[in-house]
Input
Amino acid sequence: MRNIFYTLLLSVALMACTNENRPVVQAGQTWSLDVEHADTLLRHAVDSIRFLALESGEDSELYGIDKLIVKNGLVYLADFRAGKIVAYDESGRSRFVLDAKGEGPEEYLEMRSFAADDSCIYTLDNYRHSLNVYGCRDGRYRKSLKLPFVAWDMEVLLDGSFIFAYSPGRGGKPSMNQGRYRIFITDRDLKIEKRLLPYEKEAFDFVDRKTYFSSAGQGVLFASASSDDLFVFSGKDSLRRIAVSFGNGIPDRYRQDFTRIKEGGYSYFSTTPVWCKDYVACVISCGDYLMDYIYDVKTGRLSGNDFSNAYKGLLTPVGCDGESLVSYLDDYSYYQELVAHGFTRADESVESHLKNEGAVLLFYSMR
Output
């Protein structure tokens, strides 16, 4: 799972609250993310990096990480292609594996996404239109609920409500009659309580995402390719919109024309940002590159990696544990190249683990 930081590092080295049908609330604030004027002092926002080796095992083998949730003293890592969630404790030991892909009554045909709270893990299966519920500490099946819509991602809000995201694709439409909305909020029995962020009949997003939500201290952050705006949901009745201004943002008339977007080198969020305390980690498309940045909410500073010096360089975060940004690394050669360019070195046991094809998590403590 090669990080974009290394690709750019090498290239440089070689070259020298709305209710349904009502308008979206006005933005409470605007963030300026002008990559042309970003500094390369991202490392100054990082206090330290901690490495955690993840116990290896045939059952816990993952192709890559699509979503990470830290909760209940556990780290849940999901690989949607494999249809698997592996739960690790704080020492990196594998506690259980949820691998229930199949056609049985307690299984799922797909794992489109998942969420977790202090009692359960919830997996999305659009093939069966079901939400499957498993114990959060042992992965044992509890029950299944019938989904009243198609969704690409889900989270649990601070008030206990479920929030689901749907994003229309080119030439496609959901297999259920669910109305043209990007957000559905339900109670615990999946009764729809709110439909938000409506879209036009012919609208579609020019890129798909693995996830549309990320957890933030303020609630749940939502982003899609439909706009540059970010939406923070604290509960079913609490919605905050953040307007984002890129220096070279996508003109409205090109919002659904990916060819024009690429040709113009326009900036946009490639993935949903991860908000950790006062810092927002984001991957921004910049012409032919995808680049990692940190936005400091307090100072309004946008910082990127220094590609001539990998010291405390940021590998694309896959989540946040409430205190630190969390990244995933499973490539020893990649790690060696980074260290050769000044990256923080792990201890011998972690290096040996990586060398033997093990995976590690990196916890970035921010200043």
Notes: The chain has one domain: 4-366.
